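Meet today's protein:

…
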Amino acid sequence: MNTFTREDGTPLQYTLVNIKEWCKNEFEVVNQLRMNTDSSHHRYDVILLINGLPLVQIELKTLEVRPQKAMQQIVDYKNDPGNGYNNSLLCFVQLFIVSNQKSTYYFTNNQNQHFNFNAEEQFLPVYKYANEDNTKVDDLGEFADKFLSKCSLAQMISRYMVLVATEQRLLVMRPYQIYAVKAIVDCIHQNRGNGYIWHTTGSGKTLTSFKASTLLKDNPDIHKCLFVVDRKDLDRQTRDEFNKFQKDCVEENTNTGTLVERLLSEDYANKVIVTTIQKLGLALSENPRTSPRLLNLEGLVNVSRKPVRCPKFTKLQKFSKRKPGSPCLTPRLLNFKSLVNVSPEARALHHVY
């Protein structure tokens, strides 16, 4: 929601894209759009518009041309001093898609300092779409059916892109991150108990957990969303990463008393809390104010680089069980773990989200 002040001083609130009911947006396709300026004459293969805004640009090549050539072409367009990305509605472009029919990639639009690419040495974070079983979707026709259908595309732009506020850099989530976030939200929405999300080291667990927390934070049925880590250095690291994505979205709990105050707070800003399992265990066991009030705790996520084995975790699990006659929903424990040094048998066993 944006606010515009009219000439008479009264506010006008408007929304460019419906990010909650994404299927209700208006969609248009423009082919071979020409942008003529004093110093350049560019032609764009396909532009997808949502509510009249050009949000997706598609560059197509023949089979014998590598998609990387299309990526380089986009970079050259953006580096052109007369390009339309700076002085026209093309500044709204969020996603680029390139394909030679049999190989298809997508990546985000960004300012030039975050948009370096060389056809031989790839620097841009470019992705291939994939199914839930991680099979790649290379064919342009299949990609169009699954990624570019109206509701899917609008959902991708509305829910699965993140602006790194501190860097003014736009990120789009990888397919497995999207499926993980969907699994978390569905697990809580359907009240299906606990679960595990397995990701390898360096695969973006923090971004996945951040996006899950923002979606849970906007759910009015959820009182608190806790991210519990098992070491103090992970507490600091997670907070720093979250605040990099969105400035001041989580604060440090300097002591157990501060944590208790945030747990009891009704302030929307305190809805997502990052803390250590040791500090949370003390908050639950040593403060008489917390136990009766925290029965409304809804989403509890445990983020860890290694399996958690400690008495505090057992105490937390016991605390989270439903008490007879209480109005609460049992908190969910979703454990993010690394697949480093995990056997193939274990990987296969825990592949299901």
